[in-house]
Design a protein that fits this description.
One of its GO terms (molecular function) is transmembrane transporter activity. With 459 residues, the protein is an all-alpha fold. The protein is 76% helix and 1% strand. The longest helix has 33 residues, at 249-281.
Amino acid sequence: MPKPTHGGIEAGATGVAKSRRQYVVAGIASLLGTTIEWYDFYIYGTAAALIFNKIFFPAFDPITGTLASFATYSVGFFARPLGGLIFGHFGDRIGRKTMLLVTLLLMGVPTIAVGLIPSYQSIGYWAAGLLVLMRFLQGVAVGGEWGGAVLMAVEHAPEGKKGFFGSLPQTGVAPGLILSSLAMAAVAGLPEHEMLTWGWRVPFLASVLLVGVGWFIRMKVAESPDFEAMKAHGKEVKVPAFEVLKNHRGALLKIIGARLGEVTWFFTVTAFTLSYATMNVGLPKPLILNSVSIGATVGLFMMPLAGVLGDRIGHKRVFAFGAAAVCLFAFAFFDMLQTKSTGMVYLSMIVAIGLCYSFMYGPEGSLFSAQFPAEIRYSGISLGVQISGAIGGGLAPIVATFLMAKGHGDPQLVSWYLGGLAFVALLCALSMRSSSPSIATASSGSLGGYHTPQATEAK
């Protein structure tokens, strides 16, 4: 009887036996760990949209101050490819688990430090400089975090459920966004003076508790079976990133294109819209923050559903459905905000985050992992996701603000921008290898030399 395989390698070769407890713990750790790290990342984005222009850039006019604030916000995205390169390399060489512990600390400590940075009035532009440095470190951490969290979930998962388990670290984004939005909404209700002096710092300082919880949880997780088996077979690649660029450029470019539409949509909706809705439309801050929380709450349930659907009908089909939905909804989204109706604002975020985004983001873990063999998988998915994250997420608020100015306050150009990128994402996803029934497929140029049967769905 054939031995069970993990990513195309016989598990029996290392004595690694996956039990129900192993993959359940791995799934929970990925979910809760990414929740904590994304809370740290998003709390900065929310503060950049609503507060930092007044704290760190008060000498500028409101529009310039907002752009400067979003520029510091973007630094974190531009640092993410570096994090993906560094942690992807060591994740493929040393192990997934170790890298996840390091990224957790690298995210948490700078977040706490942001809450301690003096204002512009106290130390001048040194405040902005420290803010940029902390955001850079956050970006490096997130650049390495995503790939490791996804692989720990997917590589521990049983066959037929890789989509569901791969959606768990994706699902962690939703509660991270919920927690950050609720935290900022709570302090946004303070009087203006108290909010600007000490209130905004509380959500950042609270991260110390979350980091402690995350560390405890991730210490309980066993190393990835795919990684252990790959090491036992001596299939390590000396420089995984070079192998990705040499023999897997097509897969890398497809991931970048697919991810670009998704990440630009998300950060335009959750970061730029906070500024647009409050400054241009005149919506109250608590309303828009609460609507984001409601949309993310719906996403908390829809992302695992997207993963389950992917296991049944193919992850690229589920992703393509979400991309097509963005192509259409990008034009209705801003119209719904402009009604100033509480119900329509809530509905806009439910559709934008809970439905469109969830059906793109939920299946990404399993779908993107399917494009690379185990020995370069951490590097491959990290590079693809973080390069597109830097371009899409980092520039999204800035490009949207520029397009809004070009349109004299009319968001039509922003809608075309979002819809066009979503269409590119749709085409890229449909050209990818399917993640069913196995995620470990290798190209003929792979150095690993081991393969599993191709998915039943056409490449």
